[in-house]
Design brief:
By secondary structure, the chain is mainly α. 78% of the residues lie in helices and 0% in strands. The chain contains six helices and no strands. The longest helix is centred in the last third of the chain and has 31 residues.
């Protein structure tokens, strides 16, 4: 059974479970975070094509914080999914990490287009 936020607070559990698709959030969030971590394989692409890494400037530099934040997102998400209980701080940390991550990934996409234009 998915996470039931209303169960702890004595609310209508059926409505609360439908209000937030917990299992889908976990699956899609995990997929996104793992794919962003795998994006680090770009280092191997630049090494293979150009014999060096970090020649793409900001695009390469953003990879490290993205990898770190994605790992933290996976860890905090795992804890909340594995040990379900009413929480205040950890969901806030998890959400903040992932909002920051989305912003960085958007910038990474922009710089990736610029790298494509510069090197193709």
């Amino acid at each position: 059974m998915g996470h039931v936020a209303g169960a702890e607070a004595g609310g209508d559990a059926a409505w609360q479970e439908d209000a937030f698709p917990w299992k889908q959030h976990v699956k899609l969030g995990t997929l996104a975070l793992v794919l962003w971590i795998l994006g680090a394989l770009g280092f191997y692409v630049t090494l293979d094509l150009f014999g060096s890494t970090h020649i793409t400037g900001l695009h390469a530099e953003l990879a490290w914080p993205i990898i770190g934040l994605a790992i933290l997102g996976l860890i905090t998400g795992y804890i909340m999914n594995r040990y379900k209980k009413k929480r205040k701080i950890l969901p806030l940390i998890h959400g903040t990490i992932n909002v920051l991550l989305i912003i960085l990934v958007a910038v990474e996409c922009y710089t990736g287009v610029q790298v494509w234009k510069d090197f193709s």
